[in-house]
Amino acid sequence: MARSLRHRLFGLRELVDELAFRAPARLAVSVFACVVGLFAALLMVPFATADGEGARFVDALFTAVSAVCVTGLVVQDTGTYWSLYGQIVILTGIKVGGFGIMTVASLLGMIVSRKIGLTQKLLTASETKTSRLGDVGSLVRVIIVTATTLELSIALLIFPRLVVIEDNVGTAAWHALFYGISAFNNAGFVPTPEGLMPHVGDWALLLPIALGVFIGALGFPVILNMQRALPRPGHRWRNWTKRLSLHSKLTLVTSGVLFVVGALLLLVLEWSNPDTFGPLSFGDKLLASVFAGIMPRSGGFSTVDVGAMTQSSWLIQDALMFVGGGSASTAGGIKVTTLAVMLLAIMAEARGDRDIEAFGRRIPRDVLRLSIAVVFTGASIVLVSCVALLEITELQLSVVLFEVLSAFATVGLSTGITQGLPDSGKYVLALLMFVGRTGAVTVVAVLALRDRRRIVRFPEERPIIG
Amino acid sequence: MARSLRHRLFGLRELVDELAFRAPARLAVSVFACVVGLFAALLMVPFATADGEGARFVDALFTAVSAVCVTGLVVQDTGTYWSLYGQIVILTGIKVGGFGIMTVASLLGMIVSRKIGLTQKLLTASETKTSRLGDVGSLVRVIIVTATTLELSIALLIFPRLVVIEDNVGTAAWHALFYGISAFNNAGFVPTPEGLMPHVGDWALLLPIALGVFIGALGFPVILNMQRALPRPGHRWRNWTKRLSLHSKLTLVTSGVLFVVGALLLLVLEWSNPDTFGPLSFGDKLLASVFAGIMPRSGGFSTVDVGAMTQSSWLIQDALMFVGGGSASTAGGIKVTTLAVMLLAIMAEARGDRDIEAFGRRIPRDVLRLSIAVVFTGASIVLVSCVALLEITELQLSVVLFEVLSAFATVGLSTGITQGLPDSGKYVLALLMFVGRTGAVTVVAVLALRDRRRIVRFPEERPIIG
Ligand SMILES: [K+]
Ligand SMILES: [K+]
């Protein structure tokens, strides 16, 4: 009996195995759809809302998609509309969604990059058909442990400040946990109606959250790679960056540059806006711009009213959101390495170089085609969604484009139109969040996981795209 | 004496020769700037305006840039603000600008493509340092003759209709010539305040104009190639398309697809708009959509009020304008072959092909990098210009984006904001038209005209990018 059960379980494992390696895109999308459906159902029960009357289907579905896809766009205020049960469901959705995204994308990304040691093992296992799940299991454990550690670290760092703010240890602990999970998973959900806006100058609260968002948006392969590259206590720090993979270097540098450029531009453009940075002191302006510079990639928290920003600031954030964060992270968008590869290609073209190079490594040429596919697909989806929302509503392009990019790149920043959308508009955004989330994984899986004749040349390294 | 003059002229020829082949981008930009300056000066004389008081500098400069860059955006109505002299200056500016663009771009394009027979001669000449200008001269002659023939053909085709409309043979002839030159050069200038709007259902007037715009937007290499590929009288038509170059095939197919998609989408989106297609009969709706489907690439004429269209229609036209027309044509944008190469690259990636292929030809891989450079540069220019105009004015993104793309791609369609812009805004658009016009040539010249080691493989063909 025990043997039969084990045998049947092994059969199931084999089936999942087969699916994962034969049609990984279809499997990922199906699993995601099921998880979204489950959480929508959990949010449909009457006591999920604070008034005990239950949510409408469209609101439950939208919230479930937003949570599982770690977007953070909301049609109903998280802290007041949903009950504590509802909020726990949302937070669980974020945790499950974020974990799922990191796991699936890490697996795919590692298979694509064929770089990180774990993947070598995975690939070997897949070839010899033995103990593959064991290695997947170890990856899953590493991700769970790392993610939870980082989430709890953020929560612990902001807990003292929240005790002061809330004047209640229980509420402070709950909010600290909520922000910790929401920040590391780049979810952008907040447990109170006013969110972080009252704390625009609060370095002790905002810096840990911003740092958590930044690290979360780097992506799991980068976090793991950095963990391994950092010297053990007592060892030298010299040259530790040389132990980083090309993918990690590209992600770190591009993320850093986008952060600095975004923060500076928003600082200048909003400097004298009376509804945003205008009334703030110099220090608070600086913190607000640092915070706002990190959030489009794709944390989605805000300390000032995004809806009151200028159209120029929206446009800058549109561009930043489209780029998004790191591959195999909970951030969305076309991903920073995709942008980096395209820029490197342009530089190579300008210099007349035959190969695309970065950090002493040559980037394979087919990576460029993959980048173009990701960018073009993304731009097309955004264009079609904008047309759809413009036809459904009477809204202006500036706000529609912002909300569409926020949904597509699962950012969660909002000019405030989402809550007022008609149901059809909510469905469009929900679909967009789902497509934006699973799309990159699907495109990469479909395009990159094929056997392809390769010219053997050394040394070569493949960054993860999409 | 005659000998000395000839010697000095030969010296000048040598100098231009050297510049053209050493720094073609700088030469092209400088010549363009000088021509624009000249026409601005010609429009500054008092009797250039109808009231005889002379134009303001900003208006003269804007109009000169718009004419020489064959854009068609206007800050002052062409038919009423400018005198007949002013209108002749504008038309001459179009003719000179259109000719200059076609000549320079054809030369560069042919050198890049290394395909068309004429270029082989040119290249051989450049290597042996003999009689190069003779061959450039023959190219110039072919372009002048072909362009003038097509312009006069359009003028002759619409002349009978204009006689009926204007009830005055002189005015009709002038307007026919104006429309002929304006259409073939994709300039979009109209000789009357109401333009073509009163004639929205006039097939006899609009079809020749639309056809002229379409052919002009294909680009001179395609026109020349088609001319040569078409069978002589008495010969068979079978397989004549096989004599077309890859560049011609890509340009024709992509232009055709963009036209059909654009016309259909605009037909659907504007079908019931009471301020545009709504009041029209079915036939007139069809003609209006056919006309509007051709104009974003980049004729710039309009038979309905573009400012009254929906934001969705603007967005569709934004995308079409960004793509623009054929390489080495008077059309702007990133060019249809650039789009085609990127789509083919995505298809190749999806199929897992090693090479990018079309019509039985392999497209060299470095063409893809050139395409990316053109698209990325274009998108960045558009983004920066939008931010600038949003900061200068209080206008909405939807109209600003439309006008920016219209200027960048030298289309000339307008939602109506250009005439009301402050001077700083006019300068931004004027600069954008100039950059949009010379930018592609510059990028291609800088990036593509370098010597580069090439892998020898056959058969290979290089479409013109940018
Ligand atoms: K988010
Ligand atoms: K034009």
Question: How would you explain this protein's 3D organization?
Answer:
The structure is a homodimer of 466-residue chains. The first copy, chain A, is mainly α. Chain A has one domain. Chain A has 17 helices and 2 strands. A two-stranded antiparallel sheet of chain A has the order 1-2. In chain A, α7 (132-166) crosses α8 (169-184), α7 runs antiparallel to α9 (203-218) and α9 (203-218) packs parallel to α12 (282-299). At the A-B interface, α13, α14, α15 and α16 of A face α13, α14, α15 and α16 of B. One potassium ion binds next to α12 of chain A.
| Unreliable residue runs of chain A | 113-134, 451-466
Number of domains of chain A: 1
Assembly status: homodimer
**Which protein chains make the most extensive interface, counting residues with beta carbons within 8 Å of the other chain's beta carbons?**
A-B, 43 and 43 residues
Cα Rg of chain A: 22 Å
Shape of chain A: globular
Quick one: how many beta strands of chain A? Answer: 2
How far apart the termini of chain A lie comes to 45 Å
Average pLDDT of chain A, rounded to a whole number, is: 81
Organism (chains A, B): Promicromonospora iranensis
InterPro entries (chains A, B): Cat_transpt
Transmembrane segments (chains A, B): 25-45, 57-76, 88-112, 139-159, 203-225, 246-269, 319-346, 367-390, 427-449
Subcellular location (chains A, B): Cell membrane
